[in-house]
Design brief:
Length: 289
């Protein structure tokens, strides 16, 4: 299933997308996290509603929001999870390349969630070093703690595309990632969640990022340092993960700050992050009002 959160005439709803038509699932749950919390039963009811549906909302009649537009917790992220990106990051900072033995974990605040096609606000008084990071994001489907590999994989509800937009200067100034990763609008996500049953091999999917059409990142998750069950295993050690939690699994090489010379996003730039088999999000950098 492709699951969307949409806005139509001021109403926010959830739905199942089929051939550019949305089947309204809002009667099942008030929002996407509510639907995910219904578990297998919710998925079965969604499929039944889709099978019986007689009315459809054309995709062109709605505005798609982030599929989880109001997450209950911070987005959990893994840094330096692709060897080539790890190398380029150390080199760009003039540091020796270090092996990553343990996942680098940080979060992005809930208020930075952004829609799949919405503008990313740009305020030069806050940061002039805004960068992109195309990532495969995992949506957690069930409560899980101290997950084994099997439990971790079973806890994956679905996948989506996420741009881990980063203010590189703030990331450096504050020492910790949190602030530089959490500016308003810095987490475009979507355009929908593809449920795990439809993605046979998430590591085979091509991940790309284009800026104004120019290919900047092009990889597959095959080159991840820590795979998805390992990430969930680490995160859930002594810390309960909840349905609707979003985990960004890291970005491949090709980010702007590692280019020679570094190139950052500017107002008017359009960033497109795409994952084969899932979809693409496209956001314009726009001067903040
Ligand atoms: Mg990232």
């Amino acid at each position: 299933m492709k699951l969307v959160t949409f806005e139509q005439a001021g109403r926010i709803g959830i739905g199942l997308l089929r051939d550019d038509q949305i089947i309204d699932l809002t009667a099942l749950a008030p929002d996407m996290v509510g639907l995910i919390e219904l578990g297998e039963q919710g998925a079965a009811r969604a499929r039944a509603m889709a099978g019986a549906a007689v009315t459809f909302i054309p995709l062109t009649d709605v505005k798609l929001l982030a599929p989880i537009h109001e997450p209950r917790r911070n987005v959990m992220c893994v840094g330096k999870n692709y060897a080539e990106h790890t190398r380029e990051s150390y080199e760009a900072r003039g540091e020796n390349v270090e092996a990553i033995d343990y996942p680098v974990i940080f979060t992005k605040t809930t208020t930075c969630i952004n829609g799949p096609y919405d503008d990313i606000p740009y305020d030069a008084t806050v940061s002039e070093k805004i960068d992109y990071e195309a990532e495969l994001a995992v949506i957690i489907g069930r409560r899980v703690k101290n997950a084994t590999r099997e439990e971790a994989q079973a806890a994956v509800f679905g996948y989506t595309v996420l741009n881990d937009v980063t203010a590189r200067d703030l990331q450096t100034l504050h020492k910790q990632f949190f602030k530089g990763k959490s500016l308003d609008g810095s987490c475009p996500i979507g355009p929908w969640i593809v449920t795990a049953d439809e993605i046979a091999d998430p590591y085979a999917l091509r991940i790309t990022c284009r800026v104004n059409g120019e290919l900047r990142q092009d990889s597959t998750a095959e080159t991840m340092t820590f795979d998805i069950p390992t990430i969930i295993g680490h995160l859930s050690r002594g810390m309960t993960l909840l349905p609707g939690d979003i985990i960004a699994t890291g970005t491949p090489s090709g980010v702007g700050f590692a280019m020679k010379p570094p190139v950052f996003l500017r107002p008017g730039d359009v960033v497109e992050c795409a994952i084969e088999g899932i979809g693409a999000i496209r956001n314009r950098i726009a001067l903040a009002a």
